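Please fill in the sequence for the structure shown.

STRUCTURE ENCODING:
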């Protein structure tokens, strides 16, 4: 439930325009809305999460049976507010879009989403990746940060094998409030970015690379051993997690600006 919807309902009850029984009925699925399959509960939607954390529960499609996924998405769309579904293969993504045309897709991110009230975006989250094969993970991060209210700019295919490609992004590196950097192979790009900026850098190892890349483990270990002190690391291919944290950091900077305190965006 959106905070503004709950606040409006409480005001209606306080003013006597809505009865207590009617309000209770409208709150029937708050804070949990159970989804059942053949009498067995297969999901419990956290309808309180937007109120508690500022962003609604996100649906991870990976590992779910399609009939369960369809039921969960249908129930989630019945609630007001934004919705994000991650880790969709192309086939499942297309099927869900056919069933629920209000859902939008985002490039190669493997995500579907509904954004009720798109805003102009605040602050600036820079999302970079080392190679073209890292773009799906980077786009997942960019979409997530944007849904959290950030203005997002991307810079793709700027790996260390051609460092001049990164240096050409100097303007973005100067203006960004927080950066998400995705890379596979040896995972060096986040350390380089970290050495060029005075802002947080969230490193995302991807599973790209040959044999001893070990499906992203080599990039993960390289990033964990970064000598750049402003680099922190999320799990392999976790663009969503990186974008979420970047969105929160960016949002925190906005709050500091509103209260007149020093913030990440000031120079």
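FILLED IN BY: designer on duty
SEQUENCE:
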């Amino acid at each position: 439930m959106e905070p503004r919807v709950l606040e409006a309902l409480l005001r209606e009850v306080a003013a006597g325009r809505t009865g207590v029984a009617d309000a209770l009925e409208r709150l029937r699925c708050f804070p949990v809305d159970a989804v059942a399959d053949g009498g067995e509960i297969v999901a419990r939607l956290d309808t309180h999460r937007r109120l508690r954390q500022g962003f609604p529960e996100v649906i991870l499609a990976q590992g779910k049976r399609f009939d369960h996924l369809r039921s969960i998405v249908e129930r989630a769309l019945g609630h007001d507010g934004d919705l994000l579904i991650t880790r969709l293969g192309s086939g499942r993504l297309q099927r869900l879009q056919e069933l629920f045309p209000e859902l939008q897709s985002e490039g190669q991110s493997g995500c579907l989403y509904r954004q009720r009230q798109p805003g102009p975006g605040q602050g600036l989250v820079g999302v970079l990746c080392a190679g073209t094969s890292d773009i799906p993970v980077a786009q997942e991060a960019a979409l997530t940060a944007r849904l959290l209210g950030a203005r997002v700019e991307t810079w793709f295919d700027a790996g260390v094998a051609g460092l001049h490609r990164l240096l050409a992004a100097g303007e973005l590196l100067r203006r960004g409030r927080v950066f998400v950097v995705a890379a596979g192979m040896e995972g060096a790009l986040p350390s380089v970015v970290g050495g060029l900026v005075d802002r947080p850098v969230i490193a995302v190892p991807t599973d790209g690379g040959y044999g001893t890349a070990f499906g992203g483990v080599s990039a993960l270990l390289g990033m964990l051993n970064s000598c750049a002190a402003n680099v922190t690391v999320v799990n392999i291919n976790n663009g969503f997690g990186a974008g979420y944290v970047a969105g929160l950091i960016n949002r925190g900077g906005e709050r500091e600006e509103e209260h007149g305190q020093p913030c990440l965006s000031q120079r």
